[in-house]
Amino acid sequence: MDQSPSPAASDRQPVLYLSHGAPPLADDETWTGQLHAWSDRLPRPTNILMVSAHWESAPLTVGASRAPVPLVYDFWGFPQKYFEVEYAAPTAPDLADDVSALLGQDAVHRDEGRGLDHGAYVPLVEMFPEADVPVLQMSMPTLDPRELFEIGRRLAPLRDQGTLIVGSGFTTHNLKWFNPRNPADAPPPQVSQEFDLWAAEALARQDVDAVLDFETRAPGALEAHPRTEHWAPLYVALGVAEASGGLDNEVAVDGFWYGLSKRSWQFG
After folding, report:
1. N- or C-end of the chain: fewer Cβ atoms within 10 A?
2. How do residues 130-148 score in pLDDT, each as one tens digit?
C-alpha cells in the first residue's frame, strides 16, 4: 500500500500573524535575525496571501495579480533609502481566482494597479529575500472582528493548496511610544508589556473569544491599539486556523521594538 502522505497533508501550510515593523526594521539585526530564523523553519509555499493592516478597502479587494506593479511606499518622514527598496515578487493570478471562488465572485473586487504596501513587503524582504514566491495582497473590508474571522474561515481551504496566509499587523501599535532617539530595545511602556503578556496568555489557551473581544478584555487595550487595524489581521489568521486544523500555535518572535510588541505567532 502506498504510504506517501495525501496531497493535503504534504501541501498544508501554517498560518502566520506577524508584527511587520516600519521600514527601519531592515536595519535591526535582532529582529531581522528572528525573521530569518522563522522563515528557515517554514515549508516552502506555493504562493502567499498577505492581509496587511495598511490596506482597508470595501468591498474586499485583491491587488495586482496579472503583472508586477510598483510597491506602495505608504509612509513618510524616513530617509530616502527606504523609498528605494524593491521587492519584485511574481504575481499570483491563480490565487486571486481561488480567493474569488471561495468568497464569491461578486464579493471580491480587483485592483490590478495596487502593489504591495509596507505591511506586506517589509517582512517579506526578510523572510523570502529571493522574491521568488508569488504574492497576492488582500484588503480588509471591515475591522469587525467576527466578520474578519469568518472571512478567514472561508479562506481556510487555501492552506491545503500550498498557500501561506499571513496576517500582518503589530501586537501593540501606539505610535506615541515610538521614539527613534531611544535604543530600539529600550524598556517598553508598562501598558505595552501588560497587553503583550495578556495576548501571549490568551493565544496560549486558544481563547478566540477573548482575542475577538480584546477591547473589553485586554489591559490597556485602547492605549495599545488606539485604532484596531494592526490587531485586526489576527482575526483572519485565527479564522483560517480554526477552520483547518485547530488553533495550536507557537510564538515565533517576541520582544519589543521602540516600545511596541513585535510578538508573532505561527498556527499549525
Report:
1. N
2. 999 999 999 999 999 999 9
- What span, in angstroms and rounded, lies between the C-alpha atoms of 240 and 234? 10
With 0-12 / 13-18 / 19 or more C-beta atoms within 10 angstroms meaning exposed / middle / buried, residue 101 is exposed
What single-letter amino acid sits at 203? Answer: L
0.90 exceeded by the pTM?
A: yes
Tell me phi and psi for residue 92, to 5 degrees: -135, 70
Instruction: Say if residue 5's pLDDT is above 50.
Output: no
Q: Report whether 110 contacts 61 (CB < 8 A).
A: yes
Identify the helix (H) or strand (E) that includes residue 97: helix 93-103
Instruction: Please report the domains of the chain, with CATH numbers, ordered by start residue.
Output: 7-267 (3.40.830.10)
- Give kind and range of the element (H or E) at residue 200: helix 190-204
Burial class (CB in 10 A: 0-12, 13-18, 19+), 6: exposed
CA gap 248, 226 in Å, rounded: 29
233-243 vs 145-155: helix crossing angle, rounded to 10: 40
C-alpha cell recorded at residue 266: 505561527
> Cα 186 to the chain's mean position, in Å?
25
Residue 10 grid cell: 504534504
Pairing of strands 47-56, 163-169: parallel
